[in-house]
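[job 4471] stage=fold_predict status=RUNNING
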Amino acid sequence: MWDEWIRGPEVEPSLYAADFSRLGEQIEILLAAGARIFHFDVGDAHFVPPVTIGPIVLRWISPIVHRAGGRLDCHLMVDEPAKHFEPVAEAGGDSVTFHFEVADDVESLTTPATSSASPSTPRASRRTSPVSQALSTSSCA
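[job 4471] inference complete, writing structure tokens
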């Protein structure tokens, strides 16, 4: 999956940093500037403090991104990531990244995925997690 998306070094803008009153316009500007992969943060106010954007917003912006050949990498900062796999995929998410600290399995995964670890998670735990062994793992701040 990533091999098909990546052309070389890529900048993956975080849509959470956008001005939501101008979200579509800002995505169009980023696409015109050459951005192709967008970071879409989903937070549930449990795993991370803020409630962020979710599948409803994703459903509205995914056609804009996909029409231009872009992809949406959805970062699930939530307590139960498996509950979000299907809604994110149905709303147009192209991949999910979730924190293995809160995931028991990946059986319900319907979208390409990677797992990530919070900086406070010990490195040994990152390597021995069944989830991190089943998926590629990244480190998130």
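[job 4471] summary: The chain is about 35% helix and 20% strand.
[job 4471] exit 0
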